Amino acid sequence: MKRKWIVVAFCCMMLGMGACDAKEEKAEPFSGEPITTIDASSEDQNQGNNAAEDQNQGHNAAEDQNQGHNAAEDQNQGNNAAEDQNQGNNANESQNNNASGKVQEFFANGAEAADFDRDYDADIQASIDAIAASSASVQEELKAVAKIAEQFDKLAGAANTQVEMNQSSKWFYVIWDKELNSLWSRISSQADAQTKEELLADQRNWVSMKEEVTLENIGSSEENGSMYPVLQYGFWEEITRNRVYVLANALAKIKGESFAMPERNAKYGTYVDNEGTGSVYSSLITRKGWEGDDEAIIALYRTGVIEGSFEDQGNGKLAFTSYDGKVKGTIALKGWDGASFEVTEASDDAIVSAGEKYDFNFVY
Question: Of the candidates 209, 233, 255, which is a domain's last residue?
């Protein structure tokens, strides 16, 4: 069984700033009434006036020259500011490139370098630490972490036996688990007390429900035999990467950065109603079945489990029909805000009634 990887691309948000050129308005040259007549008696006075006027014009000329110097100085300062801004942008770009450059070349020779018995744990940790220290933003950090995962595609692609598939699948989960712990460490040290307490409660609940959610999704190791590790690590990779996005978004807010959450799958996902605790009360799972059909499992607290198929109606709306034909309804997947199930039709002996609606607000 070959593992199919989906690489989520992140959009990178760049901040652009422009410098405004300062403009100063020059004073108009002196303009008096024209002299039309000259008296002999007033000639000396007139000459004195002319001398004063010449002196005044000289002052104006000096003032114009000074304003020209000031304008040139303002322009020079503007150019210097633009140059400083440009150097800042270049520094950010260099820092971003530096983050990507911190990704270790694990398999320089491709499949020929694949070593399924090697422990990559310390190498992955070193790359995660270096990326966190050198990234210009949380968004850029996750892009660099994804590049580590891309490298391990080479190891997975070289797997030929079930044992090798099991071994290679582990590292994809380890990468995102180490990033999750790195993010949480920074949230813990940078968040205010209230934010930290809220995020800590959610994180504890996520960890507490992880095993039960895994069992509901892929079944037990006894059911799946030797391929169980591939299924387990594959599912853990998916939900851990999703949790990384949630924590990364929280850290970006703490740091005052913009962060673009990726779009969740509009057909498949796992959603839980935990009533604010670390226990699964109800759950909704939509997935592709072994035979390629779209199936949904709706487990309702103190009510029972309804299993069936669904048809995609677009925009996260799924038309559900139970396998026994007793229940029909609409599943609404609301991205990172959870999901809901509303019963539209139900037979008299069904475990639910038409008009009932159930919400699943905890996202895996």
Answer: 255
Helix (H, G, I), strand (E, B) or coil at 351: coil
**Is residue 234 assigned to a domain?**
yes
For residues 121 and 178, what is the distance between their CA atoms, to the nearest angstrom?
9
Task: Output the six-digit token pair for 362.
Answer: 């905890």
Segment (H or E) for 341 = strand 339-346
Q: Using the structure block, give the residue that is written with the tokens 């939900």.
A: 239
Range of the domain at 215: 102-255
Start-to-end CA span in the chain (Å)? 25
Neighbouring C-alpha atoms within 13 Å toward the C-beta of 334: 14
What whole-number distance in Å separates Cα of residue 285 and Cα of residue 268? 7
The pLDDT value recorded for residue 228 is: 98
Tell me, yes or no, whether 215 and 313 share the same domain. Answer: no
Provide the phi-psi class of 283: left if phi over 0, else alpha when psi is between -120 and 50, else beta.
beta
Quote the pLDDT of residue 348. Answer: 97
In a domain, 305, yes or no: yes
Task: For residue 250, list its beta bridge partners.
Answer: none
Residue 29: both structure tokens together: 């040259």
According to DSSP, residue 21 is labeled P
Q: Residue 1's pLDDT is what?
A: 39
Which residues are CB-neighbours of 309 under 8 A, at least 6 positions away? Answer: 293, 294, 295, 296, 320, 321, 323
Residue 55 belongs to a domain:
no
Question: What region, left, alpha or beta, does residue 183 occupy, with left being phi > 0 and alpha being psi -120 to 50 degrees?
Answer: alpha
**What pLDDT digit, counting tens, does each position of 209-229 carry?**
999 999 999 999 999 999 999
Q: How many domains does the chain have?
A: 2
Ranges of residues in the chain with a pLDDT under 50 are 1-72, 74-96
- Domain shared by 239 and 337, yes or no: no
pLDDT given for residue 105 in this prediction: 83
Q: Name which of 144, 134, 133 is nearest 92 in CA terms.
A: 134
For every residue of 23-86, DSSP letters joined together read: --PPPPPP--PPP----STTHHHHHHHHHHHHHHHHHHHHHHHHHHHHHHHHHHHHHHHHHHHH
- Paired with 294 in beta bridges are 288
**DSSP 8-state assignment for residue 239:** H
Q: Is 111 helix (H, G, I), strand (E, B) or coil?
A: helix
